[in-house]
Amino acid sequence: RQKSSTATADTSEFDFGVYHYDTSSSNGKKKTKSHQDVTWRADAKDSLSDWTIQVTCEGGNAEQTTVTPYYVHKAFLGAGNYRTEYFQNLFNSDIKTTEMRTCKSCISLQPSSVEAFPPMLDHIYTGECNVRTSNAVALRSLSKKFGIRTLFDITAIFIKNDIKRSNAHIYLLEANVYKDEKIKTAAKDLCAKEFDSLSDKQVCSLTPELLELVVNNKRLRIPSENLSQKVANYCQSCPEDVGGRFLVAITRATFMPKIHPSAALFLLDLCITHNSDSLENEGGNAKPSLRSRCIEAAKEWKEAFGDSVLSTRKNERSKHGYSNLSSQVKVEIMEAALISANGDKEATQLASENLQLTSELQTLKKEWGKLQRLDNSSVRMMRSDNSGTFRNPNHIMYGHGHTVKMQNPTRMPDIMSPNVSSKDGVLVQRERNYWPVYYYNGGI
Hints:
Layout: E1 51-57, E2 68-72, H1 74-79, H2 85-92, H3 98-102, E3 104-109, H4 111-126, H5 136-146, H6 149-162, H7 168-177, H8 181-193, H9 200-204, H10 208-215, H11 224-237, H12 244-250, H13 261-273, H14 276-280, H15 290-297, H16 301-305, H17 316-323, H18 327-341, H19 345-355, H20 359-366, E4 379-384, E5 390-391, E6 396-398, E7 402-404, E8 428-430, E9 433-435, E10 438-441
């Protein structure tokens, strides 16, 4: 029997031709590559897109809202290796929804999710995803919204390895937007633990709600005086967000028992402006008030006043805080500062020259209760000398030799008048005007 031959025949001498397609049927349309990956980034017609997703940004002006269309493919959305459960269920449903009739999905997303939408589509088509700190929480939210388990796992691993002190505030802000409590708790705890190392820019990026959560966190690790400075910086940068209850919540004595002297005047001004003392006393709170802590801090007079009224250097926060305080509060502060100075000549001299805290102001503090309104018939205008004692001349004097011939004057003198000098008598503040006179009930 003849054996069959297993040798391969030599076909090199044959001509099998080359690939050729008759372009006459293309009607002059643009040619496409014969081999290319199907992607949502390709031209819709070239890739035979059979579905459109229209994305709009939430919270924008309706007249300026931009709608971004994405031309995608049902096979990848609902049947690919990285498919979404949302579209899989939609495409397999027998219910004829508007989406199915129009082959279009209209979706409204948060701004960061709008930015993260293209990377999400990349993952659906390729399994890859460009995850960054700025879009990680948004991608995690999209993975849950559309049901993409593989994307959820990728973002979870990324966030776990990426979150740190320098970006914890970003994760906290994003988690708050998407109500992601797991990420929010982790970021909040990390911000509290590293709060002393956070920059003012990082702290000021937080919303009032988030700042309150961080400073009241049991993991908060920061010296009290440092915390007071950060809180003061925040309140100065975001004045529209500061109210009485918010101020009380971020300055509680439980975690801020001491105020830094440089922040004392500003926080004291806020305390008085928003009447936080009365709010602190609600519920029988026995802790030292913010006001008392600020006045106590002012005993360190060089730091409390060094950048405000006692120096040529300008610190708008301290300067503004001091100028808004009433005379009574100024006296309390300076009394505490001078007692603390305990004979420091420099302190006494600066206080006298720059704060006009003379012996008359000390007397004013002691005699405050005797101050009466002008309409009392027994009121007499008195003049004090530099020793703090009082004289009762026949003609009551004030200013540059000007004589008041009425024992019971009918109005207070105008401090802006050229006939009135602040050297004649005690400076008394009433309704933000200063009067160089002393009023007493009865004579001396």
